[in-house]
Amino acid sequence: MTAAKLQVSIAACSDQGVKPDNEDFFGSLIPEEPQLTLKGITAAIADGMSGSDAGKQASDCCITSFLADYYSTPDSWSVKKSGQQILSATNSWLYSQGQLRYESAKGMVSTFSVLILKSTTAYVFHIGDSRIYRFRKGNLEQITRDHRVWVDKEKNYLNRAMGIEPHLEVDFHTFPVEQNDLYILTTDGVHDFIDDKTIREIVAHGGEDLQQLAEAIVARAGSNASDDNLTCQLVRVNRLPLAREDEILRRHANLPFPPPLSPGMILDGYRIEEELHASKRTQIYRAYDTRTNTRVILKTPSILYDDDTHYIEHFLHEEWAGKRIQHKNVLKVLGTDREKSCIYYVTEYIEGQTLREWMDSTPKPYIREIRKIVEQIAKGLRAFHRMEMLHQDLKPENIMIDSAGVVKIIDFGSVKIAGIAEITPLDHQSEDQVVGTLNYTAPEYHLGQRGTVKSDLFSLGVITYEMINGALPFGQDMPEKPNRLNLSSLEYVPSFHNNPMVPIWIDGALRKATAINPQLRYDALSEFLYDLSTPNPQFLGSEEQLPLAQRNPLAFWKGLTALSILANLILLYLLSR
Fold first, then answer.
1. Which of 9, 173, 272, 451 is most buried per CB count within 10 Å?
2. Are residues 8 and 237 in contact, defined by beta-carbon separation less than 8 angstroms?
3. Which residues are CB-contacts of 458 (< 8 A; sequence separation ≥ 6)?
């Protein structure tokens, strides 16, 4: 049985009315899979501002550029990030063209309202005085607000619109969708001349034909002496997908688990050479691709979970995430045209060692070596963050250093993808299930809070501290079951307790990166990297305030011992006289 998919009906009517030209534009797009699931269905309406030199071109640009560009953004991006990026770029272009061609802030200006239906959620972007209404169970509700300022009863003006200012401020909000919801998008030539009560009566009693309803709404506004272009677009939700259903990740879920693999066996053209790692959840094999004559890595799921659909989703989720990141500091997940006979995925083979192995073999590394490694890890993390992904399980065992010194993040098992989380909350955990590894997981995860870029920064801070000091920043393992009380009692151990050679300003950077409270951490990875290589005056100031016993305990005790010996010598001298 095929899982339910999002289905809608859309109709529209637009008329120039009493004006010589129609400067309203509308549009919609119902994509095919996989974009239907990953990006959703879009409907938009725009109205070129009266008095604008090129309002028609502006409204046309808003509609056509959004419908084209939204579906070109990365699948991993959330609706909010995708929409805001496109709207910001479009606004900048409209504003610059208005200044360049017409030398006016009113050169290319338009209102713009966008409705996106993705999975079981509606997303609205809105600027100006076009409107979006929702008709649900007999009730009509305006879900956008007009950005219009009234000077008096007769005079008003738009105070926010696309292309009117270089900086864009757009209303954005989300809400759950219900089956049979009807969304009504109108321009002011309609809703300024027909009240909400009349719109509700038309859609409530006008029948099921959406095209007739749209035409009836426009006709009623026209008969009420509308003096503007008239546009109405209707979107009815006919069927919703099952909540948490994601066919993109499930498309291979019906494949069998691979059989036990051993050296010499061939699976879909991959000849197994050696099992490199096995846990209760996965097996990792070095293999030889007989079709491309290259060495690769095969990762397979554990047969222990062959009836666990949630586990299978997560395993497929790893491959999906890895294929969307192409960066030299991130393990490359390989694509293939061949049909899979079972569930597994293939990655590049890295000849090298894990960061943990490097740390064990290099107990006292130079700080410049550490910086090079940390900088490469940060570059890899940025590749995740640019795709709106959080790694969530950064630790020395999940980082490889190849024979050329290139550092790669190698694991995708706990990655959170914003765009997928909007469809199916795979990151949902019970209180006893926290992603990541205890000593490297950001404290906010243990408190049930959502992770952010600062959460990955915390993990990187712990790793950096451990490379420099050979210890953990809080002097011991995290509590077995961290909670607000025992986390608040943890105290950061200054680096000089483990390594007296660490400058106070580097320790200051480590302290800030590993702050228990995420609000006290750096806002960006670049800030942390900068403070690791450049003395921050803020941290230097704290050095002067520390007593010598804390700032450099080795020097303090050596000095104290020398003074004690000197005092004893003086005492002996005095007694011998």
1. 451
2. yes
3. 442, 443, 513, 514, 515, 518, 521
Q: Do 348 and 332 contact (CB within 8 A), yes or no? A: yes
Q: What does the alpha-carbon distance between residue 119 and residue 424 come to, in Å, rounded to a whole number?
A: 9
Confidence check: pLDDT of 493 > 90: yes
Domains and their CATH numbers in the chain: 7-239 (3.60.40.10), 247-348 (3.30.200.20), 352-546 (1.10.510.10)
pTM for the complete prediction?
Answer: 0.76
Phi and psi (nearest 5°) for 485? -70, -55
* pLDDT tens readout for residues 506-553: 999 999 999 999 999 999 999 999 999 999 999 886 544 455 555 555
Q: In angstroms, rounded to a whole number, what is the distance separating the alpha carbons of residues 364 and 366?
A: 7
DSSP state of 497: G
| Rg, C-alpha atoms of the chain | 31
- Going from the C-alpha of 379 to that of each of 62, 386, 407, the distances in angstroms are 34, 11, 10
What are the tokens at 219? Answer: 């006709």
Q: Residue 374 and residue 495: Cα distance in Å, rounded?
A: 17
Percent of the residues in the chain that have a pLDDT greater than 70, as a whole number: 89
Checking if the pLDDT of 189 tops 80, the result is yes
**Token pair 């030398």 is at which residue?**
103
pLDDT of res. 421: 78
Mean pLDDT of 284-295: 95
One-letter identity of residue 19: K
Which tokens is 554 given? 């080795």
Produce one character per residue of 257-271: b if its CB has 16 or more CB atoms within 10 Å, e if not.
Answer: bbeebeeeeebbebe
CB distance 462 to 472 below 8 Å:
yes
Token pair 């909010």 is found at 80
SS3 content of the chain, % helix, strand, coil (to 5): 35, 20, 40
Percent of the chain with pLDDT over 90: 65
Residue from 334, 307, 332, 319 nearest 251 by CA: 319
3 state DSSP class of 233: strand
Residue 524 C-beta-side C-alpha neighbours within 13 Å:
6
Residue 323 tokens, joined: 């294929």
Q: What are the tokens at 346?
A: 């293939």
3-state class of 119 per DSSP?
A: coil
**Whole-Å CA distances, 400 to 376, 411, 444:** 11, 10, 26
pLDDT in tens, 407-458: 999 988 888 888 877 776 544 444 445 667 888 999 999 888 889 999 999 9
Beta strands in 163-269 (DSSP E): 171-176, 182-186, 230-239, 266-267
Collapsing DSSP to helix, strand or coil, 429 comes out as coil
Residues 479 and 516: beta-carbon distance below 8 Å: no
DSSP single-letter state for residue 518: G
